[in-house]
Amino acid sequence: MAEINIKDMLASYDKKNLTIATVCSHSSLQIFNGARKERLKTLGIAVGEKKKFYDAFPLGKPDEFLIVDNYKDIAKHSEELREKNVIVIPHGSFVEYLGAENFLKLDIPTFGNRNVLMWESDRNKERKWLEGAGLTMPKEIKDPHNIDNPVIVKYHGAKGGKGFFIAKTYEEFSRRIETNKSFTIQEFVMGTRYYLHYFYSPIQDNAYKLSKGSLQLISMDRRDETTIDEVQRLGSIAELEELGIHPTFVVTGNIPIVMRESLLPRVFEMGEAVIEKSLKLFGGLIGSFCLETVVTEDLEFKVFEISARIVAGTNPYISGSPYSELIQPDMSTGRRIAQEIKYATKQNSLDKILT
Ligand code: AMP
Questions:
Q1: In 3D, which of 99, 284, 258, 95 has the Cα closest to residue 192?
Q2: Are strands 214-227 and 192-201 parallel, antiparallel or unpaired?
Q3: Total domains, the chain
Q4: How far is the CA of 78 from the centre of ligand 1 (A)?
């Protein structure tokens, strides 16, 4: 990271002519649409051929495409992209396709603090961050012999919940575990899931005020995960497991949701604590982030994961959510990102939100 000097890169930029770019996947329709609403130019990076389905969504289609043979080749085009005054908006798939190392080395101005990556991708560091911020996480079970309640077993680096499984006893665990992969065992938290989409601006003081900048809640969703979310259509999980059919956690979509209003103060306290801790640990998370939570029957939040950039759960809200409507009509997370870039440009402080 140290070798990338954002001020040097921005020095040659024509700030009146910025282009918002991202990889054509995940939340790109929303990102392009949001930039378009803020009258910023857009560029979509796609592999192989132009993604035909964008023609069906003219308001979500980028102004131009960069076609690469392989996502890992994006860096080869960095000069060309910088000449177009490109600012990259990373989303979950962007980082996954590029690979963490290539992402950290990419010499194109990128929205957000890239240093966050090492804190969210290492489960021990993530726990240090979130528990250090005073959040409650599901208990970790270090020794599988101690499994005496339902647990969820997560393979490291598994994308979209792939391969995760539930076990209720050590025997069940040892029957299912693939020992060649590294994994974490967590208490399976009973409750209802809420995925909270925040936006933190280090440069604007017009929302929930923090020691530096301010915080917004833009929306929330619940992930739709197959087969766990619909498995009961076939019978109880216990019945199915007897037949060797095990529920899985592969994300297939996102469902809009709101929560009881009385829980919102806690939602902001948690967001605040996560940001304040991030400022101390690594100079602060910037922009969109998501806390993945379970609310228990005692109305307590347990946070099992953080995503430190725009999540696909914001996609139901291209034209605003029940929360963002209370900030500004017709504002998606994609649009909020574009607004932050425009605001920073006007304040001559782009280097405070890009790395
Ligand atoms: P993750 O990759 O950590 O986001 O987990 C994938 C999915 O597994 C989540 O979206 C939840 O549905 C479920 N999940 C993860 N951790 C827990 C937990 N500790 N208790 C209950 N469900 C969980």
A1: 258
A2: antiparallel
A3: 2
A4: 36
Cα-only R_g, the chain = 21
For a mutational test of ligand 1's pocket, the pick from 123, 126, 136, 164, i.e. the residue with the most ligand atoms closer than 8 A to its C-beta, is 164
Give a yes or no: residue 199 inside a domain: yes
Ligand 1 pocket residue status of 138, Cβ below 6 Å: yes
185, 199: one domain:
no
User: 201 CA to middle of ligand 1, Å?
Assistant: 28
pLDDT number for residue 2: 47
**Do residues 241 and 325 share a domain?**
no
Instruction: Fill in the amino acid letter for 27.
Output: S
Residues 220 and 130 reside in one and the same domain: yes
* Helices marked H in 77-145: 78-83, 92-98, 100-105, 117-121, 123-132
Flag whether 44 is in a domain: yes
- Collect all residues with Cβ–Cβ distance below 8 Å to 177 and sequence separation of at least 6: 144, 153, 183
The reported pLDDT for the residue numbered 127 is 96
Verify whether ligand 1 is closer than 6 Å to residue 249 (CB atom).
Answer: yes
Position in ligand 1 atom list of the atom nearest CA 223 = 10
CA distance 38 to 72: 29
Q: Is the CB of 193 under 6 A from ligand 1?
A: yes
State the residue range of the domain holding 229.
Answer: 144-189+225-251
pLDDT in tens, 192-216: 999 999 999 999 999 999 999 999 9
User: Could you say which DSSP state residue 297 is in?
Assistant: T
Measure Cα distances from 42 to 21, 65, 107, 157, 332 in Å: 6, 9, 19, 31, 16
The tokens of 22 are what?
A: 């991202």
Q: Which residues of the chain have pLDDT under 70?
A: 1-3
Q: Does residue 301 contact residue 295 with C-beta atoms inside 8 Å?
A: yes
